[in-house]
Amino acid sequence: MVIADTSVWIPFFNRPGSSEKAALDLLIDAEEVALVGIVLAELLQGCRDRSERDMLADALLALPYYEVTQSTWLQAGDLSAPLLRRGITLPLSDLVIAALAIEQNCQVYSLDAHFKRIPELQLYTPFSF
């Protein structure tokens, strides 16, 4: 299973010819993409009106969904601590995505290079399109 980050969903919805759209289409068809709350919220905040929001929510909520738990927050803090000690600060939202991926044994598909700084995290690399 692959958790797709907001950075991948944006071109999926806005650039129909993008490699991100092609890769996500394959993952969706294979039922291999999962949604997390922070990505859902980030995508919904960009909607222009209620009908766009409802259409987007309906499409995304059809995907498997992983919820944040207390252990997820602990994991996010544990992922961040050694990075902070080395002077590396990552966005909390991305640390939560990484923590969920590790808990659920998922890969993360993102265009944000800072995910590579999390040693325990498995990253998804699509085939070239």
Summarize, please.
It is built from 6 helices and 5 strands; from the N terminus they run βααβααβααββ. The protein is of the alpha/beta class.
Q: Helix and strand layout, with pairings?
A:
Blueprint: E1 2-4, H1 6-14, H2 19-29, E2 33-36, H3 37-44, H4 50-60, E3 65-66, H5 70-85, H6 92-104, E4 107-109, E5 122-123
Parallel strand pairs: 1-2, 1-4, 2-3, 4-5
Structure in words:
The chain is of the alpha/beta class and 129 residues long. The chain has one domain (2-123): Rossmann fold. The protein is built from six helices and five strands. It has a five-stranded parallel β-sheet. Helix 1 (6-14) crosses helix 2 (19-29) and helix 5 (70-85) crosses helix 6. The radius of gyration is 15 Å and the shape is globular. It starts with a strand and ends in a 6-residue tail after the last strand. The mean pLDDT is 96.
User: What is the name of the CATH class?
Assistant: Alpha Beta
At the fold tier of CATH, the topology name is Rossmann fold
What's the story with the biggest beta sheet?
A: 5 strands, parallel
Provide the domain count.
1
Q: What is the helix tally?
A: 6
User: H/E order of the elements?
Assistant: EHHEHHEHHEE
Q: Radius of gyration over alpha carbons? A: 15 Å
Alpha-beta classification: alpha/beta
Uncertain segments: none
Spatial gap, N to C terminus? 20 Å
> What gross morphology would you assign?
globular
Helix content: 40-55%
The spatial strand order of the largest sheet comes to 3-2-1-4-5
CATH H-level superfamily title: 5'-nuclease
Q: Which CATH architecture would you pick? A: 3-Layer(aba) Sandwich
As a percent range, the share of strand residues is 5-15%
User: How many strand elements?
Assistant: 5
Average pLDDT level? 96
